[in-house]
Amino acid sequence: MKYSLPIRRAVLNKRTYDLPGDGREGMLRLDLNENTSGCSPRVPKALARLSTRYIAMYPEYRRSSARFARYFGIRPKELLLANGADDALRVFFDACVDPRTEVLFCEPTFPMYRFYAENFDARITALRYTREMDFPLDDFLRALRRKPRVAIIANPNNPTGTLLDERALKQIANAATETALVIDEAYADFSGITVVPWIHRYANLFAVRTFSKAAGLASLRLGCVIGNAKSIALLRGVMPPYAVNLAALVAAEAAIKDRDTLRRCVRDVKKVRAEFASALETIGIQVFPSAGNFLLANFGPAGPALFQRLERRGILLRPRTHDIGGGFVRITIGTRDEMNRLLREIEGSR
User: Fold this and answer.
1) Res 350: pLDDT
2) Which residue in 167, 199, 261, 293 is a FRET match for 348, CA 20 to 30 A apart?
3) Which residues of the chain form beta strands (DSSP E)?
4) What does the alpha-carbon distance between residue 151 and residue 143 come to, in Å, rounded to a whole number?
5) Are residues 271 and 327 in the same domain?
6) 1 in a domain, yes or no?
7) pLDDT band at 25 (very low <50, low <70, confident <90, very high)
8) Among candidate residues 187, 118, 113, 186, the one with its CA nearest the CA of residue 150
9) Phi and psi, residue 34, nearest 5°
């Protein structure tokens, strides 16, 4: 059969976002920044109460939006629900980016920023973190003078762990006068820094949040955009009517009600992160400070072979050879037992 599918040039020329393959069941998954201790026990109980009648109907969002808004300390009209944080990020490209208009971000970072920018045929300005994994603040401020359509900052940044403080964020927000400034706060539960309280001061400032990390709901896909009410109303115009499924809403409501489990998750991650970083440094591995549920480490020239051996032993990490180089790897912080197992494997391979 001969046919010709009229695919856009931008799609044909873009790089793909390569996801890990299947067959990961039973392995120690320290590669995708998942919550390895799992979600709140209230979540499966809430899902089990879903009736066949409700599952057969399209979801309604008003009640859930009100509850999530209270959780974030905002009003419902300042919240836009999306099918995961990936979908929340796409909203800005749908609403703001025309072909060959500028999109600004810093690399290495979450690859979906470049994925969407290439897909929309945007003109990409990708600055670089320093060798010490510091954010290039002065260069970023200069780039904002060109008034890019969208500027995205992951805070904390994935995979570097870099965290911009409030002073730097205010400098950026004050400079982004004609740009949709998107702060990707996927790991804000672990950092304690958020721009959410600033949305009334900056009409074009947005926070993107997710329930995939601390809340442990990655498989259910729920994210949101938080911003000025008038700006959110404009973004709502590019969203499909039923972007979020009922199960995700029910699960997230149950998760945020269980504040004890959320706080325990964050507390444990911080404690184990510090212990694991110290243990790596003790055996001579370079570790970068992180404010997320992961660490960036440099194992040097022996790193790639080590990561392959660990995978054969059932331990999955996220090598960063393609965007940082050498023996750099991002390691999700799991439970203390999981990190001790990883450390024993590393020490046994040296």
Assistant:
1) 67
2) 293
3) 28-29, 79-82, 102-107, 123-128, 150-154, 180-184, 205-210, 223-227, 286-288, 294-298, 315-316, 318-319, 328-332
4) 10
5) yes
6) no
7) confident
8) 113
9) -80, 165
Q: Which phi and psi (to 5°) does residue 82 adopt?
A: -145, 165
CB contact at 8 A, 246 and 217: no
Residue 111 lies in a domain: yes
pLDDT band at residue 10 using 50, 70 and 90 as cut-offs: confident
Residue type, 60: E
Does the pTM surpass 0.85? The reply is yes
* Whether residues 21 and 109 fall in one domain: no
- For 204-247, the pLDDT digits (tens) are 999 999 999 999 999 999 999 999 999 999 999 999 999 999 99
Instruction: Collect all residues with Cβ–Cβ distance below 8 Å to 132 and sequence separation of at least 6.
Output: 288
Q: What are phi and psi of 281, to 5 degrees?
A: -65, -35
- Residue 7 has a pLDDT of 76
* Token pair 């009229």 in the structure block, residue: 6
pLDDT for residue 156 is more than 80: yes
Helix (H, G, I), strand (E, B) or coil at 285: coil
Contacts of 252 (CB under 8 A, 6+ apart): 64, 68, 211, 215, 217, 220, 222
Residue span of the structural domain in which 111 resides = 42-257
Quick check: 205 and 199 in contact, CB under 8 A? yes
The answer to whether residues 182 and 331 belong to one domain is no
How are beta strands 150-154 and 180-184 bridged, if at all? parallel
Q: What is the mean pLDDT of the chain?
A: 95
Q: Is residue 94 part of a domain?
A: yes
Q: Which residues contact 126 (CB under 8 A, 6 or more apart)?
A: 105, 106, 107, 114
Contact 258, 130 (CB under 8 A): no
CA angle centred on 99, ends 95 and 101, rounded to 5°: 80
Number of domains in the chain: 2
Which CATH number goes with the domain that contains 21? Answer: 3.90.1150.10
φ, ψ dihedrals at 142, nearest 5°: -65, -40
Q: Are 172 and 141 in contact (CB under 8 A)?
A: yes
297-324 burial by CB neighbour count: b if 16+ within 10 A, else e?
A: bbbeeebbebbeebeeeebbbbbbeeeb
Domain end call among 233, 257, 281: 257
pLDDT(1) > 60: no
